[in-house]
Amino acid sequence: MFRSNHITFVSAGLLTPKKRDHALARRQLYLNYGALSLATKLGLKGYEVSLVHGEHSSPEELFRQLVDCGRFPSIYPLMVSIPSFYALPWAQSFCKLAKAFDPHCRIVVGGRWVVGPDPVWLQGVLQEADVLAPGLSESVIESLLTENPVLSRIAEPTPSFTLNHRLVDDFQKYQPSIEASRGCGMGCAFCEERDIRVEKLSDGAKLAVSMAQVQAQYDGGEIRPYLQSSMFLPNVRWADDFAEHAYHLGIAWRTETRVDAITAKTVEHLARAGLRVLDLGLESASPRQILAMGKARDPDRYLRAASELLSACRANGVKAKINVLLYAGETRSTLDETTAWLDARSDAIAGVSVGPVLAYGPPKTADILIKGWRELGARPIDDRSAELLGITPIHLSPDFPAEATEEASLALSRRFMDEDSYFALKSFSYYPRDYGRNDFDKDVAASDPAALPFVVRHTTAA
Ligand code: SF4
Fold it and tell me: Of 136, 205, 210, 320, which sits with the fewest C-beta atoms within 10 Å of its C-beta?
């Protein structure tokens, strides 16, 4: 059997979209910047390497593509990255295909949110995996090509190199990512980053150089990078310095942060540096729910900070997209509190994304969460979900069984978004770079309006 000397990273795709299945949901692209970081590191060492995303292709289609272009089989292991539990079924099928074709192929599986919680469980549901890498792997990636080192869930610092987007198949489709820092540690009960200590932000001047390098990778074409950072925590001085180095690049970028992490003055500098869209994990405006999810100890102060941040965004031309998490114990009255709070600030809100809390992970990690949620009145829809799938949807409370939660989620997001605002937010980072308004209108016309999280105000072309 002929073997190439190419290292292929495969980012596992989705058999069906994460939330609702409609034409628009199948357009979304997610750059797996964690896998790209590892590919970049190997590329810098001189290996021939690429990253291919499964996205919404079938495992068969993607596998056939790798064989046809001669990258598989290879003398090197197949690197499979599973970015979320939703991608696990896709990864299972893909690994089966690879082993059936080449029983000697060594498969290294990473994706810290999926492998990390319980590698023994994962090995049981993904028996084709030869090596499981449970943590960030920059420091061990080269040794994984030839050895089976003992691996643990270690934290690794943000790499000092710039991600090489040219290693991604069809990279021109993807908006790029620039990693600014790792970790958070703010303790939100539902979040995998709750105990991982936040790292200092990269130096502003270096980050601006990285942005310029990424722009050069795209031959100077328009890019709208996502500044990746679980806990973006710039102070005024950092933001001012970053703006000094970044404003002349003219790059519009997006990032996410907590609502109480940055001041109005900081937003002013960030806007000067090119910040145009800010994803804000507000989660709730109900003091009871904020406390229940461990989002903040002082909900009044938290909500005051959120209000000030929204005003600063509006004043500086930054679109604020709010994430709302319907949490265990949610009631009609707690959701009304959140809705009223958002209504009062609607002129500063560009969009709202709403969804119920889910327990991610196998029983080892999910059971602890679910136990706490039961005390708040929630219960799993199916007790076997964690063991079988690694994702446990729940009935939030007697007020909010799953069906009512879905209706309430759609109603709240539609209250704040029509097709124009939705397109403005999604096309900034998640749709292919060449996906235009006409394409969007056609997809809207082809979708069931009942499944769309925004109001369709105008008739769109089919
Ligand atoms: S602030 Fe955000 S990233 Fe940090 S623990 Fe809370 S939800 Fe997770």
Answer: 205
Structure confidence by residue, pLDDT tens digits, 240-261: 999 999 999 999 999 999 999 9
Question: Is a pLDDT exceeding 90 seen at residue 184?
Answer: no
Task: Examine the pLDDT at 191 and tell me if it is beyond 90.
Answer: no
Q: DSSP string of 227-242?
A: EE-TT----HHHHHHH
3-class DSSP state for residue 254? strand
233 touches ligand 1 (CB under 6 Å): no
Atom of ligand 1 nearest to the CA of 295: 6
User: Does 25 sit in the ligand 1 pocket, CB within 6 Å?
Assistant: no
Say if ligand 1 is within 6 A of residue 230 CB: yes
Looking at the structure, do residues 92 and 192 belong to the same domain, yes or no? no
pLDDT interval class at 462 (50, 70, 90): very low
**Alpha helices (H) along 293-418:** 299-315, 332-343, 363-375, 385-389, 402-416
Which residues lie across from 48 on neighbouring strands?
6
Tell me the residue range of the domain where 235 lies.
Answer: 175-357+396-450
The per-residue pLDDT for 400 is 96
CA of 258 to the centre of ligand 1 (A): 7
Q: Which atom of ligand 1 is nearest to the CA of 198?
A: 4
Q: What H or E segment, with its residue span, contains residue 287?
A: helix 287-292
Please tell me the predicted confidence (pLDDT) of residue 179. 92
DSSP calls for 418-443: BHHHHHHHHHHHTS-TT--HHHHHHH
Pocket lining: 168 vs ligand 1, CB cutoff 6 Å:
no
Q: Is the pTM of this model over 0.90?
A: yes
Domain membership flag for residue 170: no
Number of domains in the chain: 2
87 in a structural domain: yes
Q: How far apart are CA 17 and CA 155, in angstroms?
A: 30
